[in-house]
Amino acid sequence: MKTPGGFSPEDEAASDYLGGMANRDVECLKALYTLYHRPLLSLIHSVMGDSGGAEEILQDVFVRAYRDAGRYDSDLGAPFPWLATIARRMAIDWLRKKQRRPGIVDLEREQPERDADKIFAANENHPHQQMELRLIAEHLERLPEGQGQVLRMAFLQGHTHSEIAQILGKPLGTVKSDLRRGLLQLRKDYLGEND
To answer: In this protein, which residues make up the domain named RNA polymerase sigma-70 region (predicted)?
Structure first.
C-alpha cells in the first residue's frame, strides 16, 4: 500500500498493517490493535460513557477495519483518523440504539465544559479509565480552539460533522480539516506520553 511522504513511521506501519489486513493477514490485525487500542478505547468511552459497551464497540471497530481494510486509502489521510471515524460512528450508533429504548440513555446536548465532568463522574469506580479520560481532556485543552471545539462537539457531544458546521457557521470542509488536524495532534500528544 502506498503511503504519503508526510506519514510518520507509525503511520506507515499502520498503513502497512491495513494493507496486510486487506489481504486477510490476521497478524496485521493484531499489530494494528496493539498500536491503537488504547487511544481508540478512550475515544469510544468518551462518547459512550459505558466501559463494558466501549470494549465491545472497540472489538467491533477492529472487526470492521479488518473487513473494510481494502477501502482505506492512504492518499486521503493517516490510518488513525480513519479508525477514529469508524469508532465514533459505531459509538454514536450504539447510543442511538440505546436511546430508542426509553429511560436508558439521554443524549441531551450539554455545555462542553460539563461533558468531561459527566463522563468522569460516570466512571468514578474505574480509576484507570478516569486517568485516561483526564489525560485526553488535558490534551484537548492544549489544542487550538477550533480543533478542540470540534473534537469536543464530535466525540463528547455526539454531533455529526454537518451539525457542527451548522452550529459553528463554518464550511463543512473547515470542520473536517479541524477534526483531522485535532485528531492527529491528539494522537501524537497522547501516544507520545503513553508509549
So the answer is: 32-101
Kindly state the cell numbers that stand for 157: 457531544
Tens-place pLDDT, residues 64-112? 999 999 999 888 888 998 998 899 888 888 877 776 654 433 444 444 4
The H or E element spanning position 144 is none
Contact 61, 45 (CB under 8 A): no
Contacts of 91 (CB under 8 A, 6+ apart): 43, 44, 47, 48, 54, 57
Instruction: Say if residues 154 and 164 touch (Cβ distance below 8 Å).
Output: yes
**Domains in the chain with CATH codes:** 9-194 (1.10.1740.10)
Look at residue 19 in the predicted model and tell me its pLDDT. 94
Residues whose CB falls within 8 Å of the CB of residue 157, separated by 6 or more in sequence, listed in order: 109, 110, 112, 115
Closest by CA to 38, choosing from 135, 179, 156, is 135
Nearest alpha-carbon partner for 20 in 59, 60, 66 = 66
Is the Cβ–Cβ distance between 48 and 104 less than 8 Å? Answer: no
